[in-house]
Amino acid sequence: MKHPEEYRGKEVIVLGLAKSGLQVAKVLHASGANVTVNDQKPREECPEAEELEAEGVRVICGGHPDDLVHPGVALLVKNPGIPYHAAPVVKAQELNIPVVTEVEVAYHLCRAPMIGITGSNGKTTTTTWVGKLLEAAGKSPIVAGNIGTPLCQAAQEATEDHWMVVELSSFQLKGTEDYRPRIACLLNIAETHLDYHGGMDDYVASKAKLFANQTEEDTAVLNWDDPVCRSLVPYIKSHILPFSLNEALQEGVHVVPPYLPGVEDEISRTVVYSDDKGFTHEIIPVEQIGLPGRFNVGNALAACAIALAAGADIASLSGPLTDFRGVEHRMEFVKERQGVTYYNNSKATNAKATSMALTSFQQPIVLIAGGLDRGTGYEELVPVLQDRVKAVVLLGETKEKLAKAAAEAGLKEIVLVDNEEDAAAVLTAAVNRAALLAEEGDVVLLSPACASWDMFPSYETRGRIFKEAVHNL
């Protein structure tokens, strides 16, 4: 797309309201475009409509009119969650009208260099961690995107003296054309969101758009332990700064000594940075990192690589690495009760995320899992269920599939909670059953391995209901 100012006097459609739609509509309207905002939800469920109409923006709620998209439209900006088979999107593509997401608009507005962070798991933790590392290094970060301030709003506030730190989903990246982050990080790739993308090829291609417009002046931070990430190397033009748990790197951020994949041990390890001049610098002992689990060590490596690429001093990194205790719904400690500790990991919306969470604990685990059925299997959970889990309490559309995986793992305690109209009551019942199964020294972990949308409007809602149920035990 062009800079928003080049749409002055031209017709632009914003598809989908919520925070991002509201902000992008305001930006385009202020630039002089003739903006129409359309949302399929009824008017009473679109509280943003009144605010936009007060500024002179046309808003249509309750469905997609047949004549919404026509040859006179210059641009369609869609909410990332709206699928590409939605009728207005299909029509726009047939008419060769650019279809983008808010990320593309914000990129053209933003004067600050951008850091784009994506991956199947760990995005929010890593993005938040990068913000704290850059703040400690005096680099004036603004954390935005999927977390915090809507990206268009933040882009307007940013100056050349800031770093814009942006969490990005595959949904957002698929709708980009010119977006070029100064530093781009791909954390990992797992099988997820296939109902949206239609297959892994489109999912990986959407993630890879993060690097599409980078040049040799930019930096690509890549997970060297992930074969899909490494497969993108031939297509990346920027300087590659890898991170690895399992391999000593000539240049990059890694662990000394490396981990053996799939093997736990008690060896003391140190996070180090090997620079392009052949020198290796110690950053922090692994045992001092504030978040538990090997996968969070990986997130810390990525965050360090990004911060170093942005010019942070090595000496400034250890404080935030030690002090950071995570974000809500990501391995969040909730409570200890009668010797049992409860953790909320509602953000684990795929099997890989749950597998990583389970390997974070040495104690026996009572796992609460289940949710939206996206057509995937859960065979990859079998080894870790066998190794770490003493009982499962299952709910939602996938409970039968997960029960099958638990049975293959040899678990004897497999509890299926009946579905009811009241989703909160179902999850509360699951927490109560888990509490009965847990003994002193155990962990009760909500880590669903599934999206929430079969029962809850969001993983945040699911996590907060879980926490309330735990506090009411």
TrEMBL record:
Q: Where in the cell is it found?
A: Cytoplasm
Q: Which GO terms describe its biological process?
A: cell division; cell wall organization; peptidoglycan biosynthetic process; regulation of cell shape
The highest taxon in the source lineage is Bacteria
Cytoplasm found in the keyword field:
yes
**Reaction(s) this enzyme catalyzes, per UniProt:** UDP-N-acetyl-alpha-D-muramoyl-L-alanine + D-glutamate + ATP = UDP-N-acetyl-alpha-D-muramoyl-L-alanyl-D-glutamate + ADP + phosphate + H(+)
One Gene Ontology MF term = ATP binding
Residue span(s) of domain Mur ligase central: 117-307
Domain Mur ligase C-terminal, residue spans? 329-450
Write out the pathway annotation from the protein's UniProt entry.
Answer: Cell wall biogenesis; peptidoglycan biosynthesis
Ordered alphabetically, the record's keywords are:
ATP-binding, Cell cycle, Cell division, Cell shape, Cell wall biogenesis/degradation, Cytoplasm, Ligase, Nucleotide-binding, Peptidoglycan synthesis
InterPro entries in UniProt: Mur-like_cat_sf, Mur_ligase_C, Mur_ligase_C_dom_sf, Mur_ligase_cen, MurD
* Enzyme Commission number(s) of this protein: 6.3.2.9
Q: For ATP, which residues are the binding ones? A: 119-125
Where does it sit, as one GO cellular component term? cytoplasm
Instruction: Please give the chief subcellular localization of this protein.
Output: cytoplasm
First-tier enzyme category under EC: ligase
According to its UniProt entry, the function of this protein is described as: Cell wall formation. Catalyzes the addition of glutamate to the nucleotide precursor UDP-N-acetylmuramoyl-L-alanine (UMA).
The UniProt family comment states: Belongs to the MurCDEF family.
Per its record, how is this protein called by name? UDP-N-acetylmuramoylalanine--D-glutamate ligase
- Upper taxonomic classification of the species? Bacteria, Bacillati, Bacillota, Bacilli, Bacillales
